[in-house]
Amino acid sequence: MYAIIATGGKQYKVEEGDILRVEKLGAEEGAKVTFDTVLAVRDDADIKVGESVSSAKVEATVLRNGRAKKVIVYKYKPKTGYHKKRGHRQQYTEVKIDSIQA
Fold first, then answer.
1. Is 13:40 a contact under the CB 8 Å cutoff?
2. What is the pTM assigned to this prediction?
3. Mean pLDDT by 10-residue block, N- to C-terminus, for the chain (102 residues)?
4. How far apart are CA 20 and CA 81, in angstroms?
5. Relative to the CA of 7, which of 14, 25, 54, 70 has its CA 20 to 30 Å away?
6. What is the pLDDT of residue 53?
7. How far is CA 92 from CA 29, 55, 65, 66, 79, in A?
8. Which residues contact 58 (CB under 8 A, 6 or more apart)?
């Protein structure tokens, strides 16, 4: 069984026991999180989408909060002496999927 959830402007295909990194949720480590925006659920036989999964939920446990590797943003325009170098580290939350309730 798997589900497709939406969080942080992205969509993820998850199964029970999966560990994934999502955009920062603001939850403490060890806390339980529920994803209510379930787009599709696939059982052994069929797939449910739309109105039939409006009550579906995916429950997960927060493993840790962290920051990803630094991404360098370098802006440069030739012949003018213009250049800017900036770095960015995106914050994330690592979660483990506990159960999918369809």
1. no
2. 0.83
3. 93 95 94 94 88 91 97 97 97 96 86
4. 42
5. 70
6. 86
7. 12, 27, 6, 5, 39
8. 3, 5, 14, 34, 35, 38, 97, 99, 100, 101
